[in-house]
Design a protein that fits this description.
The complex is a heterotetramer, with two copies of chain A and two copies of chain B. By secondary structure, chain A is an alpha/beta fold. Chain A is built from 18 helices and ten strands. The model of chain A has no long low-confidence stretch (mean pLDDT 97). Classes of the chains: A alpha/beta, B alpha/beta. Bound molecules: cobalamin (2 copies). One cobalamin sits at the interface of chains D and C. Chains A, C: It catalyses: (2S,3S)-3-methyl-L-aspartate = L-glutamate.
Chain lengths: 486, 136, 486, 136
C-alpha cells in the first residue's frame, strides 16, 4: 500500500465511498446532498466550531464530558441531563468499543442484550448500528453542539453516518486512533482511512458546511511526553488540512506539572499554527483542548474531585479552548449521569472562577515551551526527512524507525523503546530516548533532570521508576517515590 | 520451588495496555514464567497458549466494560480443550459502571472463574494469590 | 484602661489568674504544675509544634479540618473519623459560639438540649463547660495533635482549661478574635485578654512545654486585602512573642488569585521573621497556615469541591505549612463527618500530588510580594508611630484612626471606611483607602488596577462592585461582573 | 407608594456581618427605610426598634446555627409588646448542619414566623417577598 499526503481525488474517494456505504445496512441511508442540506438547517449556536470560535475570542474555557450508553432514548436523557444539570457547554457521544473495531454484529448483540436486561451492556453509544435518523434524533434533541468521540482505526462509515446524523464535530486521527487503540492495524491503513474521513469533511466544507475535527491528544494517557503528543497532533492537523478540513482542535492530556502543562498547550497552539501556515493552510481555524488527567485515577471519589479540579484549573490557566472532564467514578467504571454531572460542575466552577488568570506568559512557561518546541522540531524535521517532504509517508517510516514512539501503546507498529519518567518536580521527561531523534543538548537536559531525581531518591534510574510513576496519582502522588522518600 | 507459567492478556476488543504490561513485568520480577499475549486476546488464544506452554494459570484482564460478554464460555472452552480445572483469574474493571462488586463476583464465579477481582486490585494481591493458586 | 506591649509581671498575671479560674466551676480543676507534668507526658508525635516543624523541614503541606460537636463522645468519634477516614494530619476542636462569648449558661443549655434531642444543638464543642478531664479524654484518644479553634474575645479561662486539657496548639489573638467576632469589645480589652493567654503559654514554655500559637489570619474572610491581614498577623505575632510565646503559625485566607495568594504567604512569612528578629525574638519558630476560601461558598457540593481543591492547590504552591480545609456542606451548615472527610481527602490528594511544585519564586509572585510588603510597611510604621514605639498602644490607636481597618467587620471599634474590590485579574485591591496610610504611589497603583476593571466592565467603581464580588464565588466566578460582561 | 420601614439584624450571639450589611444596602436601594441593628441583636432590641419606628416588618438573620434556640419566643414577645401580626421573616443558615429544609421551615412556622428562608436565598427573593408582605 502506497500512502501520500495529498488530497484524495474525487474518483478515488467516490469509488471507495461506494464500498464504505455497503459495510453495514445503515450505510444506505446516507445521502451527501441531503446531509449537507440537513447540516445547513442546524442553527449556528448548535454548531461546534462556532461555539469554539466564540470561546477563543472571549478567552474562556468550555467544558465537555464523555458519555454514551447503549440505548438511544437513555442516551438522549443522559446528554440532556449533562447540559442542564451538569452545565456542559459542549456535548459528546462516546461510541462503544465494538463499533470502534467495526464489530457491528457484536454491537448489535450489545444493543439487544441491553434492551433485554435494561442495563447498558455497551461501554458507549453504537451510532453506526442506529444509523442516520436516530443520530438526528439525538443531535436535534439537545441545546448544545454534539461531537462524536471514539477511538476507531477505521471510522469511515461511522463518519458518514455521524455527519449525516447531525454531529458537528468529529474526534480522531490516523495515528491517535490507531496506536493507543489497536494492536494489528498498520499506520498506512489508518492514515488512509482517516484521509477518507478528512476528505469527506473537506467535501462538506466545500459544500458550505464546516465540521470541527479534533485529533485525539492524550494518546495512551500514560506518561506521554508533551513533545510526542504535540508532534502527533501537528501531523494529524496537517494531514486533515490537506484533505480540506478548515477547523481543527488540537489536544493534550494533562501531565500534572502546571508549568509543563501550560507550556504544552502554548507550544501546541503555536506550532500547529506555524506548520499549517508553512503548508499554506492559513485559513484553518485552530482551537485547543486540554484533557484532565488521563491515567489511572484514585478509587476514592473525593480524591478524584481533587484530580478533576486540578485538571480544570490547569486547563483554564493554560487558556485551553475546552477541557474534557473526568468523573469521580473514573477509577471504577462508566459513570452514572450524576457522577458525570458532578465532575462537570466542579470543573465549571473553576472554568469560570479562574477565567481571568493566565499563566501563558510566565517566564518559566516560556522556557519550558521553548524546550518542547525544540523537541517537536527535532521530531518533525526527521518525519519530513524520512518522508522526503511527504508527512504521511514520513509518519509511517517514523513509527517504523521509532522516531515517533508512544509509551504503553498496544500497537505492534509502535516501537515501544522510548521510556518516560517524571523528574523531581513532576514534569514528564525522557528516561531513555529509544530512537526519538532529540539533539544531544536535549538528551542531556532530560538526563540531568532524571539524574537529579535519582540522586534525590537514592536509587538508579530504572523501569521501576516508571512503574511507580504510573501508580502515583492513583495513590495520591505525582512522582512515584520509593518507600520512605518524601 | 519450580517455576510456574502464567498466561496473561486483555480479553476481547479491549486495548488497555498499561496494566497488562505492568502485570507481566511484575510477575516475571516475582519469579513466574510469563507468556503475555498483550491486548485484544480471544478466548482461543488464551487456550492455545496455555496448552502450548503447559501453563499453571490464566490471568484474564478486562478493563473496558465488556468483560461479561467477552468472558462468557471461557471455562467451558478450557474444559473442552483439556485444561481441566486450570486456575482462571479475572480482574480489572469487569463490568460497565460502578456496580456492587459482590454481585459482579457472583456472576463471574457462575461463569466458572476461580476468582474475580475488583478495580484497583494491587500487584501485591495479584502476586500473592497467584502463588497460592499455583502451589502444588 | 492602659495597655502596654510588655511582658506581664508574675504578680499581675497571678492576681488576674485567681479571678479567671473562678469564672466557671470547671476553672478550679486547673493546676499549673500538674498540667505541665501532663503536657510533658504527651509524646512528641502528638505535639502540634513538632509536627509543624517537621513539615517546614520537609517542605510539605499538612491538612487540618474544622470540627466540633456538643457531646464529647461524639466529638471524639468525629475526630477519630477525620484522622482515619479523612487522613487529617492535624486535628481541631472548634468551640461553640456561646462559649466564645463567655455565655457558659447558654452553652450548658445547649449541652443539655443536645443530650435530650440526640442532635448537636451547638455549633461547636463546649470545652470550657466540660473542663480539664473531659478535654484530656478527647486529646488523648487521638493519634494526631489537636488544636483549639474558636473566635473568643476573652479566652482566658478557655486557654487555661484547654492547655491543661492536653491541647498543644491554640488559635486566636486580641485583634483577630475580636474585630471579626464581636460588636462591643474594645481592642484594649481584648489585647489585654490575649496578653494573658500568651503569657500563660509563655509560662508553659518556660516550664519546658512548648505550645503552638496561631493568630487567626482570615479575619472576616471577605475581600480582606493581604496587606491588612498580614499586618494584623505580624502584630499579633509580636505581641505573643513579647509574652514569651516561642512557636507561632501566621495565617492568611485565600483570595483566589493565585499570584496574589502565593505572594501573600511569601510576604507574610518573611515580614513576620523580619519584625520578630527586629524585636530580638530570633528564637521564635514560624510556620504558615493557608485557609481555603473563607467567604460565601456555592450551594452545590460538586462546585464546592472545585473551590476546596483550588484552595488546597494554592496552599501547596505557596508552600504553606498547613491548610485549613472547607467541606462540600460549607454553604449550608456544619458538615457531617462524611462531608468533612470528603473535603479533607480532596485536599490531601492535592497536598501530596503538588508537593514538588512551588510558585514562591516566580517573578510575578516576587513583584506582588514587594507590593504587599511595601503596604505592610506603611501600615506597621504608622502603628509604631501612633504607639510611640509600643505596638499594643499603636494598635488601639490605629483602629481608632482607621489605620487598621477590616472590611465587613461587625465591631464598632472598626472604622469600616476602607473598601476593597477585585481587579480585572481577580486580585483584591483597595477601592477606597479610608485612612489606611498607603504611600501615594501605592494608592495610585490600586486606583489604576480598579480603573482598568471599571473600564472593562463599562461602569463606575462603586459599592455595587464590592457587593458583586462578595457573591461571585458562590455564583461560580471570582470577579463579580455586571450582567452580560464576560 | 408610601415608604415602608424594615428592621434588620442578626440574632443572638451571631457575628456574621456580611449578609446583614448587604441586605441593609439592598433594601435601602429598593426603596425601603431600613433600621439596621447589625449583629448580635437580642429579641428585645428588635422589638424596641420596631415599636420606636412603627416598623412594617422585622427581618431576622441567623447564620451560625443557633437560630432555633435564639428565635424561640420572639413572636410571643412581639404580641405582648403590641406588635400584633407584624411580618416576622427569618433566613440564613437557621439550624446546625445540613437538614431537610421542609422540616426546618415547619419548626420556625410553629414558632410563629411568617416565613422562613433556606440558605442562599437571593436578594431578589428577599426584596420581592418584603414588598408583598408590607403591601397594604
Ligand atoms: C488509560 C486509560 C485509557 C487509555 C488506554 C491506553 C492504553 N492503550 O493502554 C485510553 C485513553 C486509550 C482508553 C481508552 C478507552 N477506555 Co479507558 N481508561 C484508562 C484509565 C484512565 C486508566 C487505565 C490504566 O492504565 N490504569 C493503570 C493500570 C496500572 O491499572 P489497571 O489497568 O486497572 O490494571 C491493574 C489492576 O486493574 C489489576 N488487574 C488488571 N487485570 C487483572 C487481572 C487479575 C486477575 C488481577 C488479580 C488483577 C488485575 O492489576 C493491574 C496492574 O496494577 C481507566 C480508569 C482508571 N483506572 O483510572 C479507564 C477505563 C478503564 N477506560 C474505560 C473506557 C470505557 C475506555 C473506552 C471505551 C473509551 C471511553 N468510552 O471512554 C476506550 C476503550 C478502548 C478499547 N478498545 O479498549 C472505562 C471502562 C469502564 C467500565 N469498565 O465501566 C474506564 C474504567 C474509565 C471509566 N470510568 O469510564 N482508556
Ligand atoms: C464568612 C463566614 C464567617 C466569617 C464571618 C465574618 C463576619 N463577621 O461577618 C467568620 C470567619 C468570622 C465566621 C465565623 C463563624 N462562623 Co461562619 N461562615 C462564613 C461563611 C463562609 C460566609 C457567610 C457570608 O458572609 N456569606 C455571604 C453573605 C452575603 O450571605 P449570607 O450571610 O448567607 O446572607 C445572605 C442570605 O443568607 C440571605 N439572608 C440572610 N438573612 C436573611 C433573612 C431573611 C429573612 C431572608 C429572606 C434572607 C436572608 O440574604 C443574605 C444576603 O444575600 C458561611 C458559609 C457560607 N455561606 O458559605 C459560614 C457559616 C455561616 N459560619 C458558620 C459557623 C459555624 C461559624 C462559627 C461558629 C465558626 C465555626 N464553627 O466554624 C463562627 C461564628 C462566630 C459568631 N459568633 O457568629 C456556619 C454555620 C453553621 C450552621 N448554621 O450549621 C457556616 C454556614 C459554615 C459552615 N457550613 O459550617 N464565619
Amino acid at each position: 500500500m502506497e500512502i501520500k499526503n495529498q488530497k484524495l481525488s474525487n474518483d478515488d474517494f467516490f469509488a471507495e465511498r461506494k464500498e464504505v456505504l455497503q459495510q453495514w445496512p445503515t450505510g444506505k441511508d446516507v445521502d451527501f446532498d441531503e446531509a449537507v442540506a440537513y447540516q445547513k438547517s442546524i442553527p449556528a449556536k448548535k454548531r461546534f466550531g462556532v461555539k469554539l470560535e466564540q470561546a477563543v475570542k472571549d478567552g474562556t474555557t468550555l467544558i465537555q464530558p464523555r458519555a454514551g450508553v447503549a440505548l438511544y432514548k437513555e442516551h438522549i436523557e443522559l446528554l440532556k441531563y449533562l447540559e442542564d444539570e451538569g452545565e456542559a457547554d459542549l456535548l459528546p457521544t462516546t461510541i462503544d468499543s465494538y463499533t470502534r473495531l467495526n464489530r457491528y454484529k457484536e454491537a448489535q448483540v450489545g444493543i439487544d442484550k441491553s434492551f433485554e436486561t435494561g442495563r447498558s451492556m455497551l461501554n458507549g453509544f453504537p451510532a453506526l448500528n442506529y444509523g442516520v435518523h436516530i443520530c438526528r434524533e439525538v443531535t436535534s434533541a439537545l441545546k448544545s453542539p454534539v461531537q462524536v468521540r471514539h477511538g476507531t482505526p477505521d471510522a469511515r462509515l461511522l463518519t458518514e453516518i455521524s455527519i449525516a446524523g447531525g454531529f458537528t464535530s468529529y474526534e480522531g486521527g490516523g495515528i491517535s486512533y490507531n496506536i493507543p487503540y489497536s494492536k494489528n492495524f498498520s499506520i498506512e491503513h489508518t492514515i488512509a482511512h482517516w484521509q477518507y474521513t478528512d476528505r469527506l469533511i473537506g467535501l462538506y466544507e466545500e459544500a458550505g458546511v464546516s465540521i470541527n475535527r479534533e485529533p485525539f491528544g492524550p494518546l495512551t494517557g500514560t506518561l506521554v511526553p508533551p513533545c510526542i503528543s504535540n508532534a502527533v497532533a501537528v501531523i494529524e492537523a496537517v494531514l486533515a488540512a490537506t484533505q480540506g478540513v478548515k477547523d481543527v482542535t488540537v489536544g493534550y492530556g494533562q501531565c500534572g506539572n502546571l508549568i509543563q502543562d501550560v507550556a504544552a498547550i502554548r507550544s501546541l497552539e503555536s506550532m500547529t499554527r506555524k506548520y499549517l501556515d508553512q503548508f499554506s493552510f492559513t485559513d484553518v481555524r485552530i482551537s485547543t483542548v486540554f484533557h484532565q488527567w488521563m491515567g489511572g485515577f484514585p478509587q476514592d471519589e473525593s480524591k478524584s474531585f481533587g484530580v478533576i479540579s486540578w485538571g480544570a484549573a490547569a486547563a483554564v490557566l493554560a487558556k485551553a479552548t475546552k477541557v474534557i472532564v473526568k468523573t469521580p467514578h473514573e477509577a471504577v467504571g462508566i459513570p452514572t449521569k450524576e457522577a458525570n454531572a458532578a465532575g462537570l460542575k466542579a470543573s465549571k466552577q473553576l472554568a469560570s472562577m479562574l477565567q481571568q488568570q493566565s499563566f501563558c506568559d510566565m517566564p518559566a512557561v516560556i522556557a519550558e515551551a521553548e524546550i518542547i518546541m525544540a523537541e517537536m522540531t527535532c521530531i518533525l524535521n526527521k518525519v519530513e526527512e524520512l518522508g522526503k517532504g511527504d508527512w504521511a509517508k514520513g509518519t509511517v517510516l517514523a513509527f517504523e524507525a521509532g522516531v515517533l514512539d508512544i509509551p504503553f501503546a498496544p500497537s505492534k507498529y509502535n516501537a515501544g523503546k522510548m521510556m518516560p519518567a517524571r523528574d523531581n518536580n513532576g514534569a514528564i521527561r525522557i528516561l531513555s530516548c529509544g530512537n526519538i531523534p532529540l539533539s544531544n543538548e536535549l538528551v542531556l537536559f532530560h538526563k540531568q533532570k532524571l539524574d537529579e531525581r535519582a540522586a534525590y531518591e537514592n536509587r538508579a534510574v530504572s523501569f521501576q521508576m516508571v512503574v511507580d510513576d504510573v501508580y502515583a496519582i492513583g495513590k495520591g502522588f505525582l512522582v512515584g517515590r520509593p518507600n520512605g522518600v518524601k | 520451588m519450580e517455576t510456574k507459567t502464567i498466561i496473561t492478556g486483555v480479553i476481547g476488543a479491549d486495548a488497555h495496555a498499561v496494566g497488562n504490561k505492568i502485570i507481566a513485568f511484575a510477575l516475571e520480577d516475582a519469579g513466574f514464567k510469563v507468556v503475555n499475549l498483550g491486548v485484544m486476546v480471544s478466548q482461543e488464544e488464551y487456550i492455545d497458549a496455555a496448552l502450548e506452554t503447559n501453563a499453571d494459570a490464566i490471568v484474564v484482564s478486562s478493563l473496558y466494560g465488556h468483560g461479561e460478554i467477552d468472558c462468557n464460555g471461557l471455562r467451558q472452552k478450557c474444559e473442552e480443550a483439556g485444561l481441566k480445572n486450570i486456575p482462571l483469574l479475572v480482574g480489572g474493571n469487569l463490568v460497565v459502571g460502578k456496580q456492587d462488586f459482590a454481585e459482579v463476583e457472583k456472576r463471574f464465579m457462575e461463569m466458572g472463574f476461580t476468582k474475580a477481582y475488583p478495580p484497583g486490585t494491587s500487584l501485591e494481591t495479584t502476586i500473592a494469590d497467584l502463588k497460592a493458586f499455583t502451589e502444588n
